[in-house]
């Protein structure tokens, strides 16, 4: 293990103990995300969130808090050589080992006109489930965090007319016996950014070919999620607890005040 990787882990247990390490452990317990005997495929995209998640699971395995097996999995959906190299170098810097497999997802969706991001996400998820299952895993762990959950709640209300959220644990519909878990569910994005900056780390932002092309053609074009993120940021200036309130809104549902319910 390099000196850098040791420093990264030490600061999680000290400076970021209350903002990252404890919320991570709390989410595992509160939402029953893992149990002894689990074989977990930690899915690394190359971004700050999934890289932090892999480090946290490495620390969890080292401390023996749970009797689990962890496999880091990296899917290359068609990254350019610079982005692929950045992922490989960051794995070394953080003292992580990972299985890397390649797909051609970017080539498959780059010319799709209607909602290519949705199709890309579905295809990526399927590949991750299959490759994790082939490696003997019964769960895949993704790096979605607290802010992702909050934004999803608001996006569903404003853009879909639904009240729903990004769940911390989901049973796979297409891969029997597999589950998807989100252990960073209670970790805020600002704390992840702070951890990254504190350790002078550089990760992939978005290596999607479609996004890169949109940004080249029109710098004013932004994703719907980015719009919602900016809306929440503005609301925080007026309502300090707005994120927490949005998050809790799907926990504190008063059904007597709803005139219609939908249940699967």
- The protein's oligomeric status is single chain
What spatial order of strands do you see in the largest sheet?
A: 3-2-1-4-6-5
Provide the helix percentage. Answer: 40-55%
Query: Which range does the strand content fall in?
Result: 5-15%
Shape summary: globular
What does this 3D model show about the protein?
Helix 3 (48-63) links the parallel strand 1 (39-44) and strand 2 (69-76). This protein starts with a helix and ends in a 16-residue tail after the last helix. The chain has a single domain (3-252), classed as HUPs (Rossmann fold, 3-Layer(aba) Sandwich), CATH 3.40.50.620. It has helices spanning 3-13, 17-30, 48-63, 81-93, 105-109, 116-134, 146-160, 189-198, 209-217, 224-236, 242-248; strands at residues 39-44, 69-76, 99-102, 139-141, 169-171, 179-181. The protein has a 6-stranded mixed β-sheet with strand order 3-2-1-4-6-5, with helices on both faces. It is an alpha/beta fold. The longest helix is centred in the middle third of the chain and has 19 residues, at 116-134. The chain is globular and about 55 Å long. Helix 7 packs across helix 11.
